[in-house]
Design a protein that fits this description.
Layout: H1 3-34, E1 39-45, E2 51-57, E3 60-63, E4 66-69, H2 71-78, H3 87-92, E5 103-104, H4 111-118
Antiparallel strand pairs: 1-2, 1-5, 3-4
Helix pairs in contact: 1-2
Length: 119
């Protein structure tokens, strides 16, 4: 195990400990507003072209016109709180705290996402 990986685990544990109340409050608020599972998985593509499924708090509601941001989701998104559960991906080894966020799976093959995958 490298020093970088050990640092990721130590920082993720510390941040999870501090942010656990925020995750719980956000999950309860989403569950009350949507009456659905508060967590969702989003696929991203890493630099190496590997697909990673990231944990996030659900911020949108599916409607007949497409996804719509909820009131709770707007608050979580404004402060980027929906991304806190990604610390679980750091603990799992899928992400690093010092690495860039992956690109969307659909965007691979075009523009910037394609350039990242080619490196």
């Amino acid at each position: 195990m490298t020093i970088r990986r050990l640092g990721d685990i130590a920082m993720a544990l510390a941040l999870l400990y501090v942010c656990l109340p925020v995750i719980v409050l956000g999950a309860v608020a989403v569950w009350v507003e949507l009456a659905a599972a508060p967590f969702c998985r989003v696929e991203r593509v890493t630099r190496g072209g590997r697909i990673v499924r990231l944990w996030r708090l659900r911020i949108v509601r599916d409607t007949e016109f497409g996804p719509k941001l909820t009131r709770t989701g707007a608050l979580l998104h404004r402060y980027h709180l929906e991304q806190i559960p990604q610390l679980l991906n750091v603990m799992n080894g899928d992400l690093s705290l010092l690495a860039p966020d992956g690109t969307r799976h659909e965007a691979v093959g075009t523009g910037k996402a394609f350039a990242l995958r080619q490196r």
